[in-house]
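Hi R.,

Here are the chain sequences for the assembly we discussed:
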Amino acid sequence: MLLLQNARIATENSPVLLEGDVLIVEGKIQDIGKSLAIPEGARIIDARGRILMPGMFDAHVHFRAPGFENKETITTGSEAAINGGVTGVVMMPNTRPALDSATAIATVLENATHRSRIPVYTSGCVTKNREGKELAEIEGMRTLGVKMLTDDGDTTADPAVLLRAMQYATEFGMFFASHCEVPELAGPRALNEGVMSYRLGIKGSPACAEEIIIDRDIRLARAAGAHVHIQHVSSKLGMETIRWWKSRGDVKVTAEVAPHHLMFTDEHIGDYDTNYKMNPPLRTQADCDALLEGLKEGVFDLIATDHAPHTPFEKAQDFISAPNGITGLDTALVSLYHHFVEPGKFGWDLVVKRYSAEPRRLMGLPVAAIEVGQPADCLLFDTEAETTFTREFMKSKSQNTPFIDQTLKGRVDMVILGAEILLER
Amino acid sequence: MARKDLLDIASLHREEIEFLLDQSTSFKKLFTRSVKKIPALEGKSVLMLFYEASTRTHSSFEVAAKRLSAEVTNFNVDHSSITKGESVRETIETLQAMRTDYIVVRHGHSGLPGMIARQTTASVINAGDGAHEHPTQALLDAFTIKEKFPDPRGKKVLIIGDILHSRVARSTSTLLQKLGVEVAYLGPGSLVPKYVPASIRRFTDYEAAMTWAPDVVYLLRVQMERQDVQFFPSVREYHRVYGITNTRLAEIRDRGLYIMHPGPVNRGVELCDAVMDYERSLITNQVENGISIRMAVLDWLTPGGEFPRQEAYAAQQRTSPPVIVP
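And here is the predicted structure of the full complex:
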């Protein structure tokens, strides 16, 4: 039994924070109100000055298992999630072997049951081994609860293959998540084409490489009557393309934006810092501004980190040799607070809606809400405290993040899931 | 004023550039003596680490180091453990253990010499990294131009060709601008990026570029090996549209323009054969000046400096999980 006293409660529907006590009994929220009576045997938490909000949900993470356990495992990945206030995740299927069959999915889910303290969901491949040729065993994966199909990281190059997959899988109530990139235009370097790519002498990836596939995949979804979810949009025109299609209303399209694309530009790469090497690449301030506008407007339904761990050994190579990607689970919530909520660019309601409620809705899951009768799935956030992202602080097995050794405003103090306190600082 | 490394032109101050050009003048005077060697770097070791093929730059550095009495070791990439899958970083660790004083490095990846410099006590000299920088080429180009125009301020240099893939274009244009020279680029739209610095004029038409009245025409080698897709239809068309043809050479001769090229030359592509005999071709001068410039650079740098990210690097090593060699 847990009584959180005098918390300020954030919801997705109002920028105004409610104030009150929350009583949790046997993993469920039993009562919410002002000055609740203290039941016998209850542990009392003084939450005064701190914010109570639903646990975050990240619909785009890479836990690297099976196949790349030197970078991350389901255990370390989910502990990184808890460290950052995230209480549910959707894994991407770019593992080795790729998650393209019921057998592979079953193994991952079985592992997750034993090795994670939070629910871990997984997406499945569109095509076998993510090769873009033969359809994966889609229905078999559905029977194990897979809802999201994606050839993650590799755009399904042949539009005819993707169209057929959409026509087939939509019948089973599944949807498609698209990494949007024309590989022939983007090249392998993960650097925006522009002033910085000229200065650094690295062939850049033009934003049109992303915009073309955003448009293509939405058109394919429209033709198939499918639902397409556009992943980690990085460009202004990409955002505007989605906005336009949404305004038409004749195709089901959702989209996500990653915190790093809102916060950093290609200028941050500076002297070839591989912690800023990611795909899609960081673009310009104008792109960041447009993405923020898109997030506030609702063009982006959700925030997702694209948590992409790589070992220090791999990232310590030169910029061209180093792999793409940064970790995000440990840092997302605090960095969103530091960069946007604290300076007043958006409120907690947006964070709760876009990083907790909408991702769960996308996956067809019940929304975590701080309401009487709901299971306890929440976190306490201290807006006055600070977090220093040292290597020791991070729970991810890899620490390839631009936030390394930075101190940001805000701290995740406590994470509660059901009857368990998963984190307490 | 001395530095540990020479990695780029962009970070060099004008005073440093002037100093190196002056020193190069002094070293060049040695070339006419019967004994060309001086003991300036006696007891020092220079490691040549060339991951890409090179004739001019490699031999130029080697000659420069030997004229300063340094010991030169050639690291033969073809016969090293790199062929067994050793990463560049592991190679750097091995080299650091050898305590060499200078590492002259050429690599196809932009930024790699900087990475080496941060992890070794040796003075690292960038002898060309990807399409990023080639600082000693820029210095020898500037030196060659200054021999013809002692005060180059206000002079105009037209750089023609594959700007997109050219480290020479980046370094030389940056350096010339620091000396007050006006720079313009000319080349196919597919090879002259639209986002080059605003201070550099951009032409796609040869005649228009000539109207700009350059003093020097600097031709870049068409780097077929770097072009993963086709950037122009054929070398024949390239020569006709952007090359120095016999007809254009006549006009250049009439105008008294100088011609430069970093080599090696693709004859019949960037320029016609006759350019090699043109009295205002500075191509051979560039090669000769490369030696004195590189002597000046080696003499100027101070090995043994700190490597700034070593501590962070060591910390990474401590937390690194078991290494899997890619």
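Strands of chain B lie at 45-50, 71-75, 102-107, 123-129, 156-160, 182-186, 201-203, 216-219, 258-260. Chain B touches chain A at residues 10, 87-89, 107, 109-112, 114-115, 129-133, 164, 167, 170, 193, 195-197, 229, 313, 315-317, 319-324, 326 (CB under 8 Å).

Let me know if anything looks off.

Best,
T.
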